[in-house]
Amino acid sequence: MLDRKYILENADAVKQNCDNRNVKVDVDRLVQLETARRVKQQEVQDLNTEANAASKKIGQAKDDAQREPLKVAARQLNKNKDAAQDEHDKLDAEINELQLLVPNMAHPDCPVGVDDKSNLELGRGKHAPREFDFKPLDHLELGEKHDWIDFEGGSRTTGNGFYFLKGEMVLLDLALQQYAVAELMKRGFTPTVTPDLAQDSVLEGIGFNPRGPETQIYSIENMNLSLIGTAEITLGGLYSGKTVMDTELPIKLCGISHCYRTEAGAAGRASRGLYRVHQFTKIEMFAFTLPEQSDAVHEELRQIECDLFDAIGVPYRVVDTATGDLGGPAYRKYDLEAWMPGRGESGEWGEVTSTSNCTDYQSRRLNIRYKQKDKKGTNFVHTLNGTAFALSRALISILENHQNADGSVTIPEVLRSIMGRDVMGAA
RNA sequence: GGAGAAGUGGCUGAGUGGUCGAAAGCGCCUGAUUGCUAAUUAGGUGAACGGGUCAAACCGUUCCGCAGGUUCGAAUCCUGUCUUCUCCGCCA
Predict the structure, then answer these.
(1) What's the confidence (pLDDT) of residue A67?
(2) Window from A9-18, A69-78, A202-211 with minimum mean pLDDT
(3) Is the peptide bond prior to A111 cis by the omega test (within 30 degrees of 0)?
(4) Which protein residues have their Cβ less than 7 angstroms from some atom of strand B?
(5) Confidence of residue A19 (pLDDT cuts 50, 70, 90)
(6) What number of H helices and E strands is found in chain A?
(7) Share of chain A above pLDDT 90, in %
(8) Which nucleotide is nearest to A364 (CA to C1')?
(9) Domains within chain A, CATH numbers bracketed
(10) What is the CA A88 to C1' B46 distance in angstroms?
Protein backbone atom coordinates (compact mmCIF):
# COMPACT_ATOMS: atom_id res chain seq x y z
CA MET A 1 0.00 0.00 0.00
CA LEU A 2 0.99 3.61 -0.35
CA ASP A 3 2.14 5.68 2.57
CA ARG A 4 -0.71 7.76 3.98
CA LYS A 5 1.53 10.76 4.38
CA TYR A 6 2.50 10.44 0.73
CA ILE A 7 -1.15 10.27 -0.32
CA LEU A 8 -1.92 13.34 1.77
CA GLU A 9 0.93 15.34 0.29
CA ASN A 10 0.50 14.15 -3.30
CA ALA A 11 -3.25 13.78 -3.62
CA ASP A 12 -3.37 15.07 -7.21
CA ALA A 13 -0.64 12.74 -8.45
CA VAL A 14 -2.32 9.82 -6.70
CA LYS A 15 -5.66 10.65 -8.32
CA GLN A 16 -4.06 10.92 -11.75
CA ASN A 17 -2.36 7.58 -11.19
CA CYS A 18 -5.67 5.93 -10.24
CA ASP A 19 -7.20 7.28 -13.46
CA ASN A 20 -4.28 5.98 -15.50
CA ARG A 21 -4.72 2.57 -13.95
CA ASN A 22 -8.45 2.57 -14.37
CA VAL A 23 -8.95 2.14 -10.63
CA LYS A 24 -11.79 3.94 -8.90
CA VAL A 25 -10.95 5.12 -5.41
CA ASP A 26 -12.29 8.13 -3.58
CA VAL A 27 -8.93 9.74 -2.86
CA ASP A 28 -10.53 12.96 -1.69
CA ARG A 29 -12.45 11.10 0.98
CA LEU A 30 -9.29 9.28 2.00
CA VAL A 31 -7.48 12.59 2.43
CA GLN A 32 -10.38 14.03 4.36
CA LEU A 33 -10.59 11.02 6.70
CA GLU A 34 -6.87 10.93 7.29
CA THR A 35 -6.80 14.61 8.15
CA ALA A 36 -9.58 14.03 10.66
CA ARG A 37 -7.83 10.98 12.04
CA ARG A 38 -4.70 12.94 12.81
CA VAL A 39 -6.62 15.44 14.84
CA LYS A 40 -8.31 12.59 16.67
CA GLN A 41 -5.00 10.89 17.27
CA GLN A 42 -3.65 13.94 19.03
CA GLU A 43 -6.78 14.01 21.17
CA VAL A 44 -6.35 10.35 22.10
CA GLN A 45 -2.74 10.90 23.03
CA ASP A 46 -3.58 13.83 25.27
CA LEU A 47 -6.31 11.85 27.01
CA ASN A 48 -3.87 9.00 27.49
CA THR A 49 -1.39 11.32 29.13
CA GLU A 50 -4.08 12.42 31.54
CA ALA A 51 -5.25 8.89 32.33
CA ASN A 52 -1.70 7.62 32.83
CA ALA A 53 -0.98 10.44 35.25
CA ALA A 54 -4.13 9.68 37.20
CA SER A 55 -3.22 6.01 37.50
CA LYS A 56 0.21 6.87 38.71
CA LYS A 57 -1.26 8.99 41.47
CA ILE A 58 -3.27 6.04 42.76
CA GLY A 59 -0.11 4.00 43.00
CA GLN A 60 1.48 6.69 45.10
CA ALA A 61 -1.51 7.12 47.43
CA LYS A 62 -0.99 6.21 51.07
CA ASP A 63 -4.06 4.09 51.77
CA ASP A 64 -7.31 2.79 50.37
CA ALA A 65 -9.36 5.65 51.76
CA GLN A 66 -7.31 8.02 49.68
CA ARG A 67 -7.34 5.67 46.74
CA GLU A 68 -11.06 5.18 46.23
CA PRO A 69 -12.05 8.67 45.09
CA LEU A 70 -9.03 8.73 42.77
CA LYS A 71 -10.17 5.48 41.22
CA VAL A 72 -13.57 6.92 40.44
CA ALA A 73 -11.95 9.84 38.66
CA ALA A 74 -9.55 7.59 36.79
CA ARG A 75 -12.39 5.40 35.59
CA GLN A 76 -14.05 8.43 34.04
CA LEU A 77 -10.82 9.50 32.37
CA ASN A 78 -10.46 6.05 30.92
CA LYS A 79 -13.96 6.15 29.58
CA ASN A 80 -13.19 9.37 27.76
CA LYS A 81 -9.96 7.94 26.47
CA ASP A 82 -11.60 4.74 25.23
CA ALA A 83 -14.37 6.68 23.51
CA ALA A 84 -11.87 8.83 21.65
CA GLN A 85 -9.84 5.75 20.79
CA ASP A 86 -12.91 4.06 19.36
CA GLU A 87 -13.65 7.04 17.17
CA HIS A 88 -10.05 7.05 16.03
CA ASP A 89 -10.08 3.33 15.28
CA LYS A 90 -13.25 3.65 13.25
CA LEU A 91 -11.65 6.33 11.12
CA ASP A 92 -8.52 4.27 10.88
CA ALA A 93 -10.41 1.20 9.69
CA GLU A 94 -12.26 3.15 7.05
CA ILE A 95 -9.06 4.78 5.84
CA ASN A 96 -7.36 1.44 5.72
CA GLU A 97 -10.10 0.00 3.54
CA LEU A 98 -9.71 2.85 1.07
CA GLN A 99 -5.94 2.79 1.33
CA LEU A 100 -5.82 -0.85 0.28
CA LEU A 101 -7.66 0.03 -2.92
CA VAL A 102 -5.12 2.65 -3.94
CA PRO A 103 -2.67 1.07 -6.38
CA ASN A 104 1.05 1.68 -6.40
CA MET A 105 2.33 4.66 -8.34
CA ALA A 106 3.48 3.75 -11.83
CA HIS A 107 6.95 4.12 -13.30
CA PRO A 108 7.14 7.34 -15.34
CA ASP A 109 8.10 5.33 -18.45
CA CYS A 110 5.16 2.99 -18.08
CA PRO A 111 2.87 3.16 -21.13
CA VAL A 112 -0.32 4.94 -20.10
CA GLY A 113 -3.59 3.30 -21.05
CA VAL A 114 -6.67 1.84 -19.41
CA ASP A 115 -6.18 -1.78 -20.52
CA ASP A 116 -3.89 -4.29 -22.20
CA LYS A 117 -4.41 -2.72 -25.64
CA SER A 118 -1.90 -0.09 -24.61
CA ASN A 119 0.77 -2.61 -23.68
CA LEU A 120 3.98 -1.85 -25.50
CA GLU A 121 6.09 -4.46 -27.22
CA LEU A 122 9.70 -3.78 -26.26
CA GLY A 123 11.45 -6.45 -28.27
CA ARG A 124 11.66 -10.05 -29.39
CA GLY A 125 13.74 -13.02 -28.40
CA LYS A 126 16.62 -14.51 -30.35
CA HIS A 127 14.38 -16.98 -32.10
CA ALA A 128 11.65 -16.05 -34.56
CA PRO A 129 8.40 -18.04 -34.77
CA ARG A 130 9.03 -21.05 -36.93
CA GLU A 131 7.55 -21.73 -40.37
CA PHE A 132 6.24 -25.28 -40.21
CA ASP A 133 6.28 -27.40 -43.36
CA PHE A 134 3.66 -29.59 -41.73
CA LYS A 135 0.54 -28.96 -39.72
CA PRO A 136 1.77 -28.47 -36.14
CA LEU A 137 -0.14 -30.14 -33.33
CA ASP A 138 -1.02 -28.43 -30.12
CA HIS A 139 0.43 -29.64 -26.83
CA LEU A 140 -2.75 -31.53 -25.99
CA GLU A 141 -2.54 -33.62 -29.13
CA LEU A 142 1.17 -34.19 -28.61
CA GLY A 143 0.62 -35.04 -24.97
CA GLU A 144 -2.11 -37.52 -25.78
CA LYS A 145 -0.18 -39.11 -28.62
CA HIS A 146 2.74 -40.03 -26.37
CA ASP A 147 0.78 -40.44 -23.13
CA TRP A 148 2.70 -37.52 -21.62
CA ILE A 149 -0.22 -35.63 -20.19
CA ASP A 150 -3.33 -37.27 -18.76
CA PHE A 151 -6.15 -34.82 -18.23
CA GLU A 152 -8.80 -37.48 -18.12
CA GLY A 153 -7.06 -39.19 -15.21
CA GLY A 154 -6.57 -35.82 -13.52
CA SER A 155 -10.27 -35.06 -13.73
CA ARG A 156 -11.23 -38.46 -12.41
CA THR A 157 -8.94 -38.40 -9.38
CA THR A 158 -9.02 -34.74 -8.55
CA GLY A 159 -11.22 -32.72 -10.85
CA ASN A 160 -11.33 -30.60 -13.95
CA GLY A 161 -8.13 -28.62 -14.43
CA PHE A 162 -5.85 -31.22 -12.88
CA TYR A 163 -3.53 -33.51 -14.80
CA PHE A 164 -0.89 -36.16 -14.58
CA LEU A 165 2.47 -35.73 -16.25
CA LYS A 166 3.98 -39.01 -17.37
CA GLY A 167 7.00 -40.57 -18.97
CA GLU A 168 9.49 -38.34 -20.74
CA MET A 169 7.33 -35.33 -19.94
CA VAL A 170 8.42 -35.75 -16.35
CA LEU A 171 12.06 -35.70 -17.42
CA LEU A 172 11.43 -32.48 -19.30
CA ASP A 173 9.60 -30.97 -16.35
CA LEU A 174 12.40 -31.83 -13.95
CA ALA A 175 15.12 -30.78 -16.39
CA LEU A 176 13.61 -27.34 -16.77
CA GLN A 177 13.53 -26.94 -13.02
CA GLN A 178 17.08 -28.12 -12.62
CA TYR A 179 18.33 -25.88 -15.40
CA ALA A 180 16.57 -22.79 -14.03
CA VAL A 181 17.76 -23.35 -10.49
CA ALA A 182 21.35 -23.82 -11.67
CA GLU A 183 21.24 -20.67 -13.79
CA LEU A 184 19.77 -18.64 -10.96
CA MET A 185 22.34 -19.89 -8.48
CA LYS A 186 25.04 -18.70 -10.88
CA ARG A 187 23.47 -15.28 -10.67
CA GLY A 188 23.39 -15.07 -6.91
CA PHE A 189 19.95 -16.42 -6.10
CA THR A 190 19.49 -18.68 -3.09
CA PRO A 191 17.34 -21.65 -4.07
CA THR A 192 14.46 -22.01 -1.64
CA VAL A 193 11.89 -24.75 -1.55
CA THR A 194 8.93 -23.20 0.24
CA PRO A 195 5.86 -24.67 1.88
CA ASP A 196 2.88 -24.96 -0.45
CA LEU A 197 0.58 -23.85 2.35
CA ALA A 198 0.63 -20.67 4.34
CA GLN A 199 -1.35 -19.19 7.20
CA ASP A 200 -4.22 -16.98 6.15
CA SER A 201 -2.62 -14.06 7.97
CA VAL A 202 0.38 -14.32 5.65
CA LEU A 203 -1.82 -14.41 2.56
CA GLU A 204 -3.62 -11.34 3.81
CA GLY A 205 -0.35 -9.59 4.58
CA ILE A 206 0.76 -10.07 1.01
CA GLY A 207 -2.56 -8.85 -0.29
CA PHE A 208 -4.51 -12.00 -1.07
CA ASN A 209 -7.93 -12.56 0.32
CA PRO A 210 -7.95 -16.26 1.19
CA ARG A 211 -11.63 -16.67 2.02
CA GLY A 212 -14.69 -15.23 0.40
CA PRO A 213 -16.81 -15.58 -2.71
CA GLU A 214 -14.33 -14.15 -5.20
CA THR A 215 -11.20 -15.78 -3.95
CA GLN A 216 -8.72 -17.49 -6.25
CA ILE A 217 -7.31 -19.34 -3.27
CA TYR A 218 -7.98 -22.85 -2.02
CA SER A 219 -8.22 -22.98 1.74
CA ILE A 220 -8.20 -25.84 4.19
CA GLU A 221 -11.37 -26.49 6.05
CA ASN A 222 -11.32 -25.99 9.82
CA MET A 223 -7.79 -24.60 9.67
CA ASN A 224 -6.42 -21.17 9.02
CA LEU A 225 -4.25 -22.50 6.21
CA SER A 226 -4.48 -21.99 2.46
CA LEU A 227 -2.69 -23.37 -0.56
CA ILE A 228 -0.41 -20.75 -2.05
CA GLY A 229 -1.04 -19.30 -5.50
CA THR A 230 2.61 -18.40 -5.89
CA ALA A 231 5.83 -18.66 -3.90
CA GLU A 232 5.69 -14.87 -3.63
CA ILE A 233 3.40 -15.49 -0.67
CA THR A 234 5.76 -17.69 1.29
CA LEU A 235 8.91 -15.81 0.29
CA GLY A 236 7.37 -12.51 1.35
CA GLY A 237 6.14 -14.15 4.53
CA LEU A 238 9.64 -15.40 5.18
CA TYR A 239 10.84 -11.85 5.73
CA SER A 240 7.68 -10.22 7.02
CA GLY A 241 8.24 -8.20 10.15
CA LYS A 242 11.99 -8.34 9.72
CA THR A 243 14.58 -5.60 9.60
CA VAL A 244 17.75 -6.38 7.65
CA MET A 245 21.01 -4.45 7.39
CA ASP A 246 21.44 -2.44 4.19
CA THR A 247 24.68 -4.32 3.51
CA GLU A 248 22.73 -7.57 3.15
CA LEU A 249 20.74 -6.20 0.22
CA PRO A 250 19.90 -7.14 -2.42
CA ILE A 251 18.60 -10.50 -1.19
CA LYS A 252 17.78 -12.69 -4.17
CA LEU A 253 15.76 -15.84 -3.69
CA CYS A 254 14.73 -18.52 -6.13
CA GLY A 255 11.50 -20.02 -4.86
CA ILE A 256 10.43 -23.49 -5.86
CA SER A 257 6.85 -24.38 -5.10
CA HIS A 258 3.61 -25.67 -6.40
CA CYS A 259 1.00 -23.04 -7.11
CA TYR A 260 -2.72 -23.55 -6.67
CA ARG A 261 -5.40 -21.38 -8.19
CA THR A 262 -9.13 -21.89 -8.33
CA GLU A 263 -9.34 -19.88 -11.59
CA ALA A 264 -12.97 -19.20 -10.87
CA GLY A 265 -14.79 -18.24 -14.05
CA ALA A 266 -11.88 -18.67 -16.43
CA ALA A 267 -12.84 -21.55 -18.69
CA GLY A 268 -12.98 -21.65 -22.45
CA ARG A 269 -11.01 -22.33 -25.57
CA ALA A 270 -8.22 -19.89 -24.68
CA SER A 271 -7.48 -21.92 -21.58
CA ARG A 272 -7.36 -25.42 -22.97
CA GLY A 273 -4.84 -27.91 -21.76
CA LEU A 274 -1.98 -26.85 -19.55
CA TYR A 275 -2.45 -23.15 -20.20
CA ARG A 276 -4.76 -22.48 -17.29
CA VAL A 277 -4.70 -25.18 -14.63
CA HIS A 278 -5.41 -25.40 -10.93
CA GLN A 279 -1.98 -26.64 -9.97
CA PHE A 280 1.43 -26.07 -11.45
CA THR A 281 5.04 -25.92 -10.39
CA LYS A 282 6.84 -22.63 -10.56
CA ILE A 283 10.42 -21.50 -10.24
CA GLU A 284 10.08 -17.96 -9.01
CA MET A 285 12.59 -15.18 -8.58
CA PHE A 286 12.10 -12.84 -5.67
CA ALA A 287 14.29 -9.96 -4.55
CA PHE A 288 14.47 -7.56 -1.65
CA THR A 289 16.50 -4.47 -2.53
CA LEU A 290 17.42 -0.96 -1.49
CA PRO A 291 15.11 1.61 -3.11
CA GLU A 292 17.88 2.84 -5.41
CA GLN A 293 18.61 -0.72 -6.58
CA SER A 294 15.15 -1.82 -7.60
CA ASP A 295 15.05 -0.44 -11.15
CA ALA A 296 18.35 -2.13 -11.99
CA VAL A 297 17.31 -5.42 -10.40
CA HIS A 298 14.04 -5.29 -12.31
CA GLU A 299 16.00 -5.04 -15.57
CA GLU A 300 18.13 -7.93 -14.35
CA LEU A 301 15.08 -10.10 -13.72
CA ARG A 302 13.72 -9.30 -17.17
CA GLN A 303 17.07 -10.15 -18.72
CA ILE A 304 17.20 -13.47 -16.90
CA GLU A 305 13.75 -14.37 -18.19
CA CYS A 306 14.89 -13.53 -21.71
CA ASP A 307 18.06 -15.55 -21.30
CA LEU A 308 16.14 -18.58 -20.06
CA PHE A 309 13.67 -18.57 -22.94
CA ASP A 310 16.41 -17.87 -25.47
CA ALA A 311 18.27 -20.84 -24.03
CA ILE A 312 15.34 -23.19 -24.57
CA GLY A 313 14.88 -21.85 -28.10
CA VAL A 314 11.38 -20.50 -27.64
CA PRO A 315 10.31 -17.38 -29.58
CA TYR A 316 8.88 -14.64 -27.39
CA ARG A 317 8.16 -10.97 -27.21
CA VAL A 318 8.71 -8.66 -24.26
CA VAL A 319 5.81 -6.47 -23.26
CA ASP A 320 5.88 -3.37 -21.09
CA THR A 321 2.54 -3.52 -19.31
CA ALA A 322 0.32 -0.46 -19.56
CA THR A 323 -0.86 1.34 -16.44
CA GLY A 324 -4.41 0.02 -16.73
CA ASP A 325 -3.23 -3.58 -16.95
CA LEU A 326 -0.89 -3.48 -13.95
CA GLY A 327 -1.77 -5.30 -10.76
CA GLY A 328 -2.22 -3.09 -7.72
CA PRO A 329 1.23 -3.61 -6.17
CA ALA A 330 3.24 -3.18 -9.39
CA TYR A 331 5.21 -0.05 -10.17
CA ARG A 332 6.26 -1.53 -13.45
CA LYS A 333 5.72 -4.94 -15.02
CA TYR A 334 7.23 -6.74 -17.98
CA ASP A 335 5.70 -9.89 -19.43
CA LEU A 336 7.29 -12.41 -21.70
CA GLU A 337 4.81 -13.82 -24.17
CA ALA A 338 5.93 -16.99 -25.87
CA TRP A 339 4.83 -18.00 -29.31
CA MET A 340 2.51 -20.98 -29.02
CA PRO A 341 1.85 -22.49 -32.45
CA GLY A 342 -1.04 -24.60 -31.16
CA ARG A 343 -2.90 -21.70 -29.63
CA GLY A 344 -5.77 -20.09 -31.50
CA GLU A 345 -6.27 -20.58 -35.25
CA SER A 346 -2.62 -20.55 -36.29
CA GLY A 347 -0.60 -19.69 -33.23
CA GLU A 348 -0.78 -16.92 -30.67
CA TRP A 349 1.42 -15.23 -28.12
CA GLY A 350 0.73 -16.50 -24.61
CA GLU A 351 2.05 -15.10 -21.36
CA VAL A 352 4.78 -17.27 -19.86
CA THR A 353 6.52 -14.97 -17.40
CA SER A 354 5.87 -11.76 -15.59
CA THR A 355 8.24 -9.62 -13.58
CA SER A 356 7.15 -6.75 -11.37
CA ASN A 357 8.88 -4.09 -9.39
CA CYS A 358 6.58 -3.48 -6.44
CA THR A 359 8.80 -0.82 -4.83
CA ASP A 360 7.78 -0.42 -1.17
CA TYR A 361 4.11 -1.22 -1.79
CA GLN A 362 4.34 -4.77 -0.40
CA SER A 363 7.05 -4.18 2.16
CA ARG A 364 5.02 -1.47 3.86
CA ARG A 365 2.20 -3.94 4.34
CA LEU A 366 4.53 -6.78 5.28
CA ASN A 367 6.67 -4.51 7.42
CA ILE A 368 10.01 -5.44 5.87
CA ARG A 369 12.63 -2.80 6.58
CA TYR A 370 16.31 -2.16 6.31
CA LYS A 371 18.63 -0.35 8.63
CA GLN A 372 21.72 1.63 7.77
CA LYS A 373 24.68 1.48 10.10
CA ASP A 374 25.10 4.63 12.16
CA LYS A 375 21.76 5.97 10.99
CA LYS A 376 18.72 6.34 13.14
CA GLY A 377 15.51 4.68 12.07
CA THR A 378 14.67 2.23 9.33
CA ASN A 379 13.20 2.29 5.83
CA PHE A 380 11.13 -0.06 3.75
CA VAL A 381 12.89 -2.34 1.28
CA HIS A 382 11.73 -2.71 -2.29
CA THR A 383 10.38 -6.07 -3.43
CA LEU A 384 10.46 -7.55 -6.90
CA ASN A 385 9.27 -10.80 -8.33
CA GLY A 386 9.66 -12.55 -11.63
CA THR A 387 8.83 -15.91 -13.12
CA ALA A 388 11.74 -18.08 -14.16
CA PHE A 389 9.62 -20.97 -15.36
CA ALA A 390 5.96 -21.62 -14.73
CA LEU A 391 6.35 -25.25 -15.69
CA SER A 392 2.93 -25.79 -17.23
CA ARG A 393 3.31 -22.98 -19.74
CA ALA A 394 7.01 -23.56 -20.32
CA LEU A 395 6.15 -27.13 -21.27
CA ILE A 396 3.55 -25.93 -23.77
CA SER A 397 6.06 -23.62 -25.40
CA ILE A 398 8.68 -26.34 -25.78
CA LEU A 399 6.34 -29.02 -27.08
CA GLU A 400 4.63 -26.82 -29.61
CA ASN A 401 7.73 -25.01 -30.90
CA HIS A 402 10.10 -27.95 -31.06
CA GLN A 403 7.78 -30.59 -32.47
CA ASN A 404 8.76 -32.51 -35.57
CA ALA A 405 6.67 -33.85 -38.43
CA ASP A 406 6.68 -37.34 -36.93
CA GLY A 407 5.28 -36.07 -33.64
CA SER A 408 8.57 -36.27 -31.77
CA VAL A 409 9.96 -33.23 -29.97
CA THR A 410 13.55 -32.02 -30.23
CA ILE A 411 14.89 -31.25 -26.79
CA PRO A 412 16.55 -27.84 -26.30
CA GLU A 413 20.30 -28.25 -26.21
CA VAL A 414 20.76 -26.98 -22.66
CA LEU A 415 18.43 -29.69 -21.35
CA ARG A 416 19.86 -32.63 -23.27
CA SER A 417 22.56 -33.64 -20.84
CA ILE A 418 20.13 -33.35 -17.95
CA MET A 419 17.54 -35.52 -19.70
CA GLY A 420 20.04 -37.90 -21.20
CA ARG A 421 18.56 -37.66 -24.71
CA ASP A 422 18.22 -35.33 -27.68
CA VAL A 423 14.68 -36.10 -28.72
CA MET A 424 11.59 -37.16 -26.86
CA GLY A 425 8.79 -39.21 -28.33
CA ALA A 426 11.09 -40.79 -30.88
CA ALA A 427 9.56 -43.76 -32.69
C1' G B 1 -2.10 -36.99 18.31
C1' G B 2 -1.27 -36.82 24.16
C1' A B 3 1.41 -34.43 28.57
C1' G B 4 4.45 -30.49 30.20
C1' A B 5 7.70 -25.93 29.82
C1' A B 6 8.93 -21.50 27.49
C1' G B 7 8.75 -16.91 24.14
C1' U B 8 11.74 -9.90 27.23
C1' G B 9 16.16 -4.79 23.60
C1' G B 10 21.78 -6.76 18.36
C1' C B 11 22.89 -11.28 21.77
C1' U B 12 22.80 -13.75 26.84
C1' G B 13 19.51 -12.97 30.66
C1' A B 14 16.81 -10.65 35.38
C1' G B 15 12.11 -9.05 36.28
C1' U B 16 4.87 -12.28 39.21
C1' G B 17 0.37 -5.83 39.50
C1' G B 18 2.30 0.81 40.08
C1' U B 19 8.63 4.11 40.93
C1' C B 20 9.84 -0.80 34.11
C1' G B 21 11.27 1.09 27.85
C1' A B 22 12.66 -2.46 31.29
C1' A B 23 18.64 -4.91 36.02
C1' A B 24 23.23 -7.10 34.74
C1' G B 25 26.71 -8.92 31.27
C1' C B 26 28.34 -9.09 26.16
C1' G B 27 28.49 -6.36 21.69
C1' C B 28 28.57 -1.46 19.53
C1' C B 29 29.60 4.15 19.68
C1' U B 30 32.09 8.56 22.01
C1' G B 31 35.77 10.63 25.43
C1' A B 32 39.97 9.89 28.81
C1' U B 33 44.33 7.14 29.91
C1' U B 34 48.48 3.59 29.16
C1' G B 35 53.43 3.58 23.43
C1' C B 36 51.54 -0.82 21.38
C1' U B 37 47.53 -5.69 17.15
C1' A B 38 44.77 -4.60 23.33
C1' A B 39 43.77 -3.31 28.54
C1' U B 40 41.55 0.18 32.10
C1' U B 41 37.90 3.90 32.86
C1' A B 42 33.60 7.55 32.27
C1' G B 43 29.42 8.16 29.42
C1' G B 44 26.17 6.75 25.56
C1' U B 45 23.52 2.93 22.82
C1' G B 46 15.80 -0.14 20.49
C1' A B 47 11.63 0.79 17.19
C1' A B 48 6.97 2.83 15.17
C1' C B 49 3.62 6.86 14.93
C1' G B 50 2.38 12.13 15.79
C1' G B 51 4.15 17.10 17.00
C1' G B 52 8.56 20.15 16.49
C1' U B 53 13.17 21.81 13.55
C1' C B 54 16.38 24.06 7.45
C1' A B 55 18.35 19.80 9.99
C1' A B 56 18.98 18.37 14.91
C1' A B 57 17.82 18.93 19.90
C1' C B 58 13.30 18.26 22.08
C1' C B 59 7.91 16.81 23.51
C1' G B 60 3.89 13.15 23.45
C1' U B 61 1.67 8.27 22.50
C1' U B 62 2.44 3.13 21.60
C1' C B 63 5.44 -1.41 21.68
C1' C B 64 8.23 -7.16 26.50
C1' G B 65 5.83 -13.38 20.15
C1' C B 66 0.71 -11.90 18.22
C1' A B 67 -4.62 -10.80 19.33
C1' G B 68 -8.18 -10.05 22.97
C1' G B 69 -9.75 -9.71 28.34
C1' U B 70 -9.52 -8.33 33.86
C1' U B 71 -7.82 -3.69 36.49
C1' C B 72 -7.58 3.14 38.05
C1' G B 73 -2.91 0.69 36.48
C1' A B 74 -0.24 -5.39 33.00
C1' A B 75 6.25 -7.58 30.76
C1' U B 76 3.84 -9.51 35.29
C1' C B 77 -3.04 -12.19 36.05
C1' C B 78 -6.85 -14.65 32.42
C1' U B 79 -8.35 -16.50 27.29
C1' G B 80 -7.15 -17.52 22.33
C1' U B 81 -3.35 -17.99 18.76
C1' C B 82 1.56 -18.73 16.59
C1' U B 83 6.39 -20.50 17.51
C1' U B 84 10.21 -23.23 20.19
C1' C B 85 11.87 -27.07 23.60
C1' U B 86 11.21 -31.83 26.53
C1' C B 87 8.72 -36.56 27.20
C1' C B 88 5.19 -40.25 25.15
C1' G B 89 2.67 -42.19 20.78
C1' C B 90 2.48 -42.61 15.42
C1' C B 91 4.88 -42.27 10.77
C1' A B 92 7.85 -41.39 5.17
Answers:
(1) 83
(2) A202-211
(3) no
(4) A 4-5, 38, 41-42, 44-46, 48-49, 51-52, 54-56, 58-59, 67, 71, 74-75, 77-78, 199, 224, 369, 376-378
(5) very high
(6) 13, 17
(7) 72
(8) B48
(9) 4-101 (1.10.287.40), 116-424 (3.30.930.10)
(10) 27
